[in-house]
Amino acid sequence: MRPSKRAADEMRSVTLERGYSRHAEGSCLVKFGETHVLCTASLEERVPPWLRGQNRGWVTAEYGMLPRATGERMRREATAGKQSGRTQEIQRLIGRSLRAVVNLEALGERQITVDCDVIQADGGTRTASITGAWVALNDCLSWMKARDMVRDNVLTDHIAAISCGIYAGTPVIDLDYLEDSDAETDANFVMTGAGGIVEIQGTAEGAPFSRDEFNSLLDLASAGITRLVDLQKMAIS
Fold first, then answer.
1. Which of 42, 165, 171, 230 is 20 to 30 A from residue 203's alpha carbon, by CA?
2. HEC profile for the chain?
3. What does the domain layout of the chain look like in residue ranges?
4. Residue 86 marked in a binding site
5. In the prediction, which pLDDT does 160 show?
6. Arch. (CATH architecture) of 14-236
């Protein structure tokens, strides 16, 4: 039995609230159960120096957790003077995931930065961030299209992510903190709406997992991401 009493293939309640921030060109408050992340997409009429003159744009991401997003207050990384390795790894993952479904040439010489700020954490913050970031990015591009800045072909597909793992010997989907902290295997899957795999992060926390177990996790992830993409489609409709 999972601590949450969910079935092995049952995800937490997921909501995607668009337009949460009045100032950002695109925004989404995403909730995976008790994990809540605010995603904002901001447009800048510039590109990184190494991209200047190449007639293409850039999409990047930043990630952070509010000091009391967890059970005990964490020190702000800005106060510490540097980002943790975990923060850098997650924000690079978000950026890579979004760029996988963006036509950078169609974007023009502009940069969109998606900020993912974790308000409350209960496992799966990176997967929630990616899923909500796509909605914020989509709305930013819609804002640009309404002003004749881009055409329809910038965003090529949906992108979403979900965690899966082996808990108490059983493959399960969408791990919360209690499961994640005690799982024998923990994996994150990033996939497109068409079912293409963008990234898989999988780690055996105890005994190595088998090919059959991995296939079970992939099947769970594929079904879960299909559900998340459906929710994205409903959110932007």
1. 230
2. CCCCCCCCCCCCCEEEEECCCCCCCEEEEEEECCEEEEEEEEEECCCCHHHCCCCCCEEEEEEEECCCCCCCCCCCHHHHCCCCHHHHHHHHHHHHHHHCCECHHHHCCCEEEEEEEEEECCCCHHHHHHHHHHHHHHHHHHHHHHCCCCCCCCECCCEEEEEEEEECCEEEECCCHHHHCCCCEEEEEEEECCCCEEEEEEEECCCCCCHHHHHHHHHHHHHHHHHHHHHHHHHHC
3. 14-236
4. yes
5. 98
6. 2-Layer Sandwich (3.30)
Positive or negative, the Cα torsion across 180, 10, 173, 68?
negative
Would you say 125 is a known binding-site residue?
Answer: yes
Q: If you average pLDDT over residues 67-78, what whole number do you get?
A: 92
12 is in an annotated binding site: no
Q: Which residue type sits at 17?
A: E
Q: Which pair of tokens denotes residue 134?
A: 């796509």
Residues 136-185 have pLDDT tens digits of: 999 999 999 999 999 888 999 999 999 999 999 999 999 999 999 999 99
79 annotated ligand-binding residue: no
